[in-house]
Structures are given as C-alpha cells and as structure tokens.
Amino acid sequence: MSTEATEKPGEEGGSTVGGAGTGGTRFDLDKETELRFEVEAGERVQLELLNGMAEVFGSELNRNKKYTFGPGSKIAVFTWQGCSLSLSGKTEVAYVSKDTPMLLYLNTHAALEQMRRQAERDNERGPRVMVVGPTDVGKSTVCRLLLNYAVRLGRRPTLVELDVGQSSVSVPGTMSALCIERPADVEEGFSVQAPLVFHFGSTTPGTNIKLYNKLTSCLAEVFSQRCEVNRRASVGGCIINTCGWVKGSGYQALVHCASAFQVDVVLVLDQERLYNELKRDLPHFVRVVLLPKSGGVVERSKDCRRETRDEKIREYFYGFRGVSFYPHAFDVRFSDVRIYKIGAPSIPDSCLPLGMSQDDTQLKLVPVSPGRDLTHHVLSVSCVEDEVEGGPGRSRGILESPVCGFIVVTAVDTQAQVMTVLSPAPRPLPRHTLLIMDIRFIDLK
Amino acid sequence: MAAKDTLTEAVQVEFSNELLSPPELLHARSRNHKIPVKGQKDFLLSGSEQQRAALQKSLDEHWTLVAEERVERLGNLVNAEWIPEEKLVKLQTPAGKFWQTMGFSDRGKQCLLPEEALYLMECGSVQVFYQDLPLSIQEGYEQFLSPETVTLHQYQVFGHLKRLGYVVNRFDPSTVPTLYERQLNLPLPRNKQTKHLKRKHGNSPLGSRLFNKSHCDKRSTLPVEETKPAQQCEGEIMTVDPRLDQTAPDQAKTEQNPQDELMEFNTDLDRAPRRNWWTDTSSQVQHTLGQHTSARPWDFSCIRFPDLGSSRAGHACLAAPDPKLLPGALQVGECEVTPWLRKLNLKAERLSRREWERQRERDRYHRDINNDREVRRCRNWAEYLELMEKRRSHQFKKRPAHLWEQDVIPLAQPGQCDSHRDLLEQVSVIQSSDLLHGASRLPPSEQWRICFNVYQPDTVADFKKSHPGKPYTRMCVCSFDGPVPDLLVMKQLSFQSGDVPVTFAVVDHGDISFYCFKEFKLPTDIY
Q1: pTM surpassing 0.80?
Q2: Nearest to A254 by CA among A375, A162, A387
Q3: What residues of A are in contact with residue B250 (Cβ under 8 Å)?
C-alpha cells in the first residue's frame, strides 16, 4: 500500500503504451493478499485483471480492462477473494504480500457504516472522521479506502482535504472539501467536480498556522451548512485528511480541527504517542482509534513530494496526464487586478498600536505591487465579488472566500504594466482579486 | 428674409419677397443683442407701486424681446420640410455647420429630429415648411413637441444644454455596451449608432425615433432583455475552472442564504441559476452548530472499532463484521489483532532535544481533560463547547445587569473585538451599499428614462457623429411638479447607464437645475 500513488499522472500524453501486449507477468493472488508494485521512472505499467475480483485502494478493477500507471506510481492491488493479474511494463518492485492491515481498515469501515445506519434511522448526523498520523503512513490512502467503501454502499461522504502540501483535490497550498458521489477512478483518483477550495498559499501549515485554523473553521462551517440542507450529505458524514505535522502547533491544529468539525472518530495511524495525547486532549465522547500503517507504504523524499506538487498543478491546467485540457495564455493589466498576500511580516511589539497583538498580522491582507518577482507564482482567483469587496458591508472577507480558479504568471512586463498568465479559461478573469501563493510553477513540458 | 414669431402676421405676408432695405438691415444689425439681466426674483406680492413698475418693466422687456423681428441672411437659411407621419424634418437644401453635431442621413436624405429642428429654427439656421408654408417658431413648438417625440421639459433641457455648447443627442439604450462587453474591454463598435439608425430606417423609421409613451413600454423593456444575455454570459465566465465550478445544485444551495434564495427566486424566475459557491450572504446566519449535534452520544460499546490502543489490555480477536455493512456483501473472517500490536510505531519519530523536553514536560504536567467531572458530564460537542465558552466568559468580569439583561443591549461585546475593524463592523447598524449592487435584477421603470447623451463642447473634445465615444454624462429629465427619484430609480438608471454618470435635469417653469448623485464610501479601517 502506498500513499497517493495513483495521483501521479504520467509525464506525457497517451494512455496506451505501444507493444505492451498480454505477454506480461502473471500473478496469482490468494484471498486477502495484495500485489504491490512501483513503476520505474520514465516507464509505464499496464495492469489487467484476468479472473477473480480485486480492488485498488477500494476501487474495484474491471476484468480484462487494461489500466495504465505512469512513472513513479506506487500501487497495491488487493483481493478479498483471490484473483489472477497480469502486469506488463517495467516495474521497480513487484511482489505479493500477505501482511496487510486491510481487514482492520475494513472493520473500521464496518463500524462507520454502523454509525451511518444509526444516523439514518434516528435522523441524526453521520460520523465525522479525522485521519491523523505522521507523514508517509498512508493517511490519504486510508481516506480514499474508507470513502470508496462508503460510496460503494450508496453513501455520499465528503472528503475534507486539509493537507496543504499534498492535496488530492486541488492544487497544493489549498484546503478543500469535495463531495464524493462515485468511487475513485483507478488511475485518476476521485473525480474533482465542484470542490470547495480555500486559498492557503503555502505547502506547510506552519507558515501561517492562524490562517490554517481559520480556514479549517470556515470549511467546517460550510460543511455544517451543507449538512443542514442535504440529508444524504449529513448521513454520509465526512472524512478529514490532515497534514503529517503532529508536533507543537501542528498538534494544536489537529485539536482545533477536531473541535471545529466536532468529529466523532479520530483514526490515528501508527503513532502511539499521538494516540495517547489525543485521548487526553479530546473529550471522552470522541472515539480515538489507533490503527497500524500498511507495510507497503513507501517513504517519499522531498524531491518526490515537490514533483508530485508540480504534477498536481500541471494536471490542473492540462488535465490528467496532460492531455485533456488546453489552457489559455493572455495578458492582464496590472490596473485591472488587485493582488494580495496573506500575512504581514511581523514587527516588534513596541511598534504596534496599543492593545493590538502580534497575531493579528498573520491574517492581514497585504497588497502586492506586481513586479518581476511575481513570475511563475501561482495565484488564486478569489470568489469575492468585485463590487462588494472593500466595502464595509461586505458579506465575506477575502480570507473567508473560496477560490474560483488558479492562474500562473508566466511573464511580467513592468514597462507595459501587464503580466501574461496561464489560465484554465479564456479572458476575462472572472474576478479581479488575486491571492499570491508561495508556490511556483514553471511550465516546462 | 425674416421669420416672425407671431402667427397672424406670418400667414398674411408673402415670405419670399419680404426683403429688407439697407437702412432696415443696418438698423437690425446695430440693435442691442443683449438679453436684459433679470435681478433677483420677488416671491411675495407686496402691492407697492415700485414693485408693480418693476414687474411691468420686466414684462415689457420680455415682450419686446419676443416680438422682435429676427433678421437672417437668406443664404444661411436651410430649407426643410416637416413630415408629421415620421415625426421628422427632412432637409431640402444642403445642411450647414450644424450637421457636424446634429441630424442623420436616411436613404441619402438629410434629416433632423424634431427637437433639433426646433432648436435650429430658434437659432435662425433652418426654415421649416409644412404643406409648402413656412412654420413659425410657435408653430414649431406646437407641432414638434409631443409625448411621442420630446416633451416641452425635455426640449427645454435640450435647448439649454445646446446653448451652453454641449453636444446632445437622444439616448438609445441599445447602444450602451453590455456588462459583458465592458468586462471584455471591447472597443465600442465604430459605427454602432449610425448603423443602428440606418438599419432601422428599413423596417420602421418611426420606432427608432419615437421615444415617449407609445413606445416607451417597448423601450423600457429593452435594457433588461439586453442585459440578460450579458448576465448569463457572466455566469458562464465565472466557471473559470471546468472542474471547480460545476457546483452540484444541492451544494450551491448550501451556501445560499434562505432569504437570498427567495429573493432570487422572485426576481429572476426565468434566469438560469447562478453557479457560484455563495452569493451575497449579507445577513450572515450565525450557525449554532449545536443544533445538529446529536443529543445522544454514539454507543461505542455496540459500534466496535479495531482500536489497537485499547486492545493492548484485552480482547485480541475482532469478530467478523456483518456482510451487510460491507461493499459487495463481502464475507470476511475474524481478525487477529495481536500480531498488529507489534507493528505499531514503525515510523520513527524525529524529535529535536527541545521538542523532546517539551514533550516530557507536557506528559508530566498536562492533565487529561476527561478527569474533569464537568467535562465527563458533557455528552456531545455542543455541550462541551458550551462549557468551554462558559468557563472562558467566567474569566471576564461579570457583566452589569442593566446593560446586558434587557431588550436593548450594547452592539459590541466586550472582549470580542480585537481590532478597530471588528469593532466598526459590529457597531455598523446601517450597511452602506453600492449603487450598482443588485441593480441588474431590478425591473425597469415605466416613468423614469434617460433622455439624452451629453458630450463635451467642441472646444474640449472633438465630436464625431459616426463615432460619438463615451458621453460626458446622461440626462434624465424631470420636473419639480413630478415625484422625486427614489433609490430604486437611481439604481436602475445608473445600471442602465453603466460607467457614464447620470444627471437629473429638474425643470421648474423654464429654470433648469441639475442634480447628480455621487457615491462615496464611509471611512473604514483598512486592514
């Protein structure tokens, strides 16, 4: 089992690999075992289910359909009943393992499903689950698994993605919520339709923990509102994926998240210390559960994470494996947009107005004057209404407004006062309030 | 040749022969052209002889001014014919300099609108014939001004502005760039207006130029029809990201305020629902999350989680889950837990020395919050958060009863605002609003219309009829006898006018005053 393995799209277009016939390696799996494999860099692997039943992170495989996995994918194919698989292409490793915690995860799902049934019967809300643990223990995979199982039973759970570094919903540096209506695609992951996305702007919550907590509360509020009008969403509950930062402020953020979402169950992966601390700091009615991590989870290097992030942004503009979307490039005049950065640099206490605390600066909007250093930065287009913005009677601040899309600045012409942007939609920009991210994207391919 | 103001004389005289002799011309030229200066108005009749004399003098002056024969050079006069069916004046001889700013061509013929013709008659540049007889200015007033063309009030404003040097023409709502065009920054089509006029001559020359009553119904609905596609376009454009914006309908609803939804439902029944995450939630509903928390806690003795932490002590085997709870009705066996207990904490924790020390300190001194009896008594989050809130507020001083325990309580809660902005937001009872906000949804009014586009005088900017550009302002004519424009009207008109300001010309028995509404923002704390 690995984390976010299928979310890595291939480097180049084309979903079929020429010459890869049926002459692949055949694997026969016993019941409750899994085939783990990693795809070599620059290679592609095709997987085919010959007989029996198998699933990839909870999404069932179709028999005799070829699934292609791009370079760097780390996949685990699990079978409950036993199956035969064919694998063709170059893999780094490929082995069958009996040692999987899937049965524990399935039991977890069964318990959550029991809660959903009870919620349905008693007209109450469904389970809200938070998945926590250090980095590289398979948090995202467990989320995907539980969501897939739930949606296969006809539930409508919500995925709340708080991992700003490796978001599975939108580009990195965002916090998002996504209603799951069908199981994840084996290759592409969950279909990303109409997510709610908030701008965070950085890949670690540590850069602005106050904003992180505020946006967590925003998401929780929106989710509760949704539950109030949508019964199925309420029963389906939510599964919250968190960051791998579990020390200090990161831990405090987890406790804050638990109270903002009013979670019922916390799944702690692997780390017993975290389990004990959460048991101590969360009220008794919250069920804290310790689960093992899968032996198949691979540790990812910093470079690997950065590449995944880059791929995620590329996928946003060019579509899965870079073939389905065609983004637009056009000029935007500086005078037409307002660019902000969230969080002012901290200043000594002695310089602050009386009674103002330092923390306020973290949520301040700082206007950014466009310049050459803006090049390659990812900008979020805030949903805040242009005419309302700035007025005192405005309904929602820029901070609390979701994002309607992202653009990348590809060039800045300070002389002509224009910047060239890469945008998923043609001009004009729908809104004119832009928020700058620390994340850069260089469109090389 | 002289045009006379009085009808009776005019009918009897043979006009073309009415030429003046040199001494008469000389006399006419040396006449005093100054308009007598009126002093301040007397409002009350005092009955004194002095006042009566002053009044009489002023009246006499007025009459001599009006009755004065006007002398024009025959060569300067342009002949034209009044065509009442089309409400137009067609020129018969080539137009003069006024053609730069007035008139239009219809099938090769030069035409003037009635208000333009009347103004030019007053200026002595045009001689209008009807049934081969010249019209006097008085007749012009009677013939040209009607609710279908322009009213007297409108003409007074028109003439006033013309005399001041402005270029004035009728306002045609269809020439205003739509919201969408403005957003795209499209240049105004070069000959939009002229083309527009030309096209209309083909089918209904009347429809385009009549702009009061009979056609105003049709006209007034025009702007809405025209802005509608723009709004729809706008709605589409908002979907920047094909993936981000396809909000599921129920999801979108989540964000909308019930009130807002209702309002939208009322005003734009036929419009496609706008697809964004939230529309304006000006009166943000404070959510009491507690409403939805179940009063009953989950019974975790029935709902069994495979918790490795608690099973350290006891049961080492998990019963097989009910197949009904599993996808695809899976049948799985029991699950041994014990082997997994050894497979915990696989991921090595890297703590710096300081972190480690802090950790140990916390372990030693930090109490389990569940040791607290009150916390143990809470059954769900709502109760727990309420308890926490209560404890927090207990730390503050007790609030004085005469302030907080009555119907009227202070607007701002102590301790809740930590910046000036928060405080200002809490005490702002009247919300300031943008003039254009929500205006797109308003139905157009029957009574209020924009009448004229006004352009700067020639000296300031070059005016071209074929490419008029952006007007300096737009005029809405009203009278002191009529009602005062309300907020609704102002919103509608300024929305219709777009980025050009709207001025209200208020006519009071010939005196015209101009009013415009300027938007300003209340000072706020910028954060």
Answers
A1: no
A2: A162
A3: 226, 229-230, 233
The series of mean pLDDT values per 10 residues for chain B, 527 residues long, is 42 56 80 69 79 87 80 83 89 86 87 91 88 88 87 92 90 75 60 41 38 38 38 36 39 40 38 35 37 60 80 66 83 80 79 80 77 84 87 69 78 71 74 73 79 84 80 90 85 84 88 86 64
- Answer yes or no: are the C-beta atoms of B363 and B357 closer than 8 Å: no
The token pair that represents A141 in the structure block: 């995979």
Please state which CATH class domain A25-97 belongs to: mainly beta
Partners of A396 on chain B (C-beta within 8 Å) are: 278, 281, 284
Indicate the CATH number for domain A326-386+397-440: 2.40.30.330
Q: Where does CATH 3.40.50.300 sit in chain A?
A: 101-291
What would be the CATH architecture of the domain defined by A101-291?
Answer: 3-Layer(aba) Sandwich (3.40)
Q: Is the dihedral of CA B435, B439, B444, B445 positive or negative?
A: negative
Residue A194 region by backbone torsions, left for phi larger than 0, else alpha for psi between -120 and 50, else beta:
left
Identity of the residue in A152, A224, A430 whose CB atom sits nearest the CB atom of B287 = A224
Which of A80, A193, A402 faces B243 most closely, judged by CB atoms? Answer: A193
- Which residues have C-beta within 8 Å of that of residue B55, sequence separation ≥ 6? B42
Residues of chain A with CATH 2.60.120.1030: 25-97
C-alpha span between A119 and A237 (Å, rounded) = 10
Using the Cα atoms of residue A346, residue A352, residue A358 and residue A359 in order, give the sign of their dihedral.
Answer: negative
Q: Please, is A299 exposed, middle or buried when counting C-beta atoms within 10 Å of its C-beta (0-12, 13-18, 19+)?
A: exposed
